[in-house]
Amino acid sequence: MKLTQENYFSPEADREYLSVSQYKKFVGTMGRVGCEAEAMACLNGEWAMKKTTSLLVGSYVDAHFEGTLDLFKAQNPDIFTKQGTLKAEYRRAEEVINRIERDDYFMLHMQGEKQVIMTGELFGAEWKIKMDSYFPDTLIVDLKCMKSLREANWVKDSGYMNFITYWGYDLQGAIYQKIVEINTGKKLPVKIAAASKEEYPDIAVIQVEQSLMDAALAEVESNVPKILALKNGEIEPLRCEMCDYCKHTRVLTHSIWTEDLLGEV
Ligand SMILES: [Zn+2]
C-alpha cells in the first residue's frame, strides 16, 4: 500500500510495515516492558493502546509545529472543558510552544520539511518512518515533549539513564537515519529537539551520538526476525502479564503466593 498522512497510522499500514513505535510495543525499551501479546492484539484490531494525556500533550505540540492544530482540536474534543476552554494540561502545552518559539536556535531546527514519510527494507522487514522536521542532505530532527529533560531514570543492572536511551529515542534515530540512507544514499546526523512540560519548560537540542545509534541498530537487527515470525503467525506471542492488555485478558487458573506479587524486582 502507498502510505499517506491519512493512512500512516492505520492497522493495515501497521500490518504491512514495521515502525519504530510498533517495534517498541513488541520489544519494549528500558522504560517500558514490551508485550508481544498486546502488540499482536493491536495489529489484529482487538486492542487499542490508551491515548494517555501525556501522549496527547506531545501530539498537541507536534500538531502546532506541523500546522495542523485546528484539525487536532477537532479530532480530540476531550482536550476541552465543558465550558469550551482548553484543559490545564493543554494550556501547559501552549506554554511549552511559546517557550520553544522564543528560542531562535530551537526554531531553526523546526524549519525542515514536516512529517515526511519514507519506507525501506531493512533486516528483512519493510519499515515506515515519519519525520517531524527533515532537512534533505543535511539533518533529521525529531521533536519530543518530555516530563523532564535532565531527570535520571533508574534501570536495574544498568544504573541511571537519560531520557533518550531510557525511551529508545536512540533506536528511533538509528532507524530514521538508516531508512533515509536507503532512500537517498546520505547518512544524516540525528537531533532531538526537546522541551519539558515543567512549570518553566526546559528546552534543548540534543544530537544523538553515532555510537549510540550503531549499538541500537545492532539490537534491532537481532529482534526483527522474531517480530516478523510473530506478525506472520508462525509463533505464538508471549504475554508480559503486566500491561493493560494482559490484565484485561487474564484468566485465573490457580492461586499464587505472596512472594509472587512483586515478581523479579
Ligand atoms: Zn502484556
From TrEMBL:
Question: Quick check: keyword Hydrolase in the entry?
Answer: yes
Q: Which domain of life is it from?
A: Bacteria
UniProt entry tagged with the keyword Zinc: no
| Pfam families for the chain | DUF3799
- Annotated InterPro entries: PDDEXK-like_dom_sf, Put_RecE_PDDEXK-like_dom
The UniProt keywords, alphabetically, are: Hydrolase
Q: Which GO terms describe its molecular function?
A: hydrolase activity
What name has this protein been given in UniProt?
Putative exodeoxyribonuclease 8 PDDEXK-like domain-containing protein
Organism taxonomic ancestry: Bacteria, Bacillati, Bacillota, Clostridia, Lachnospirales
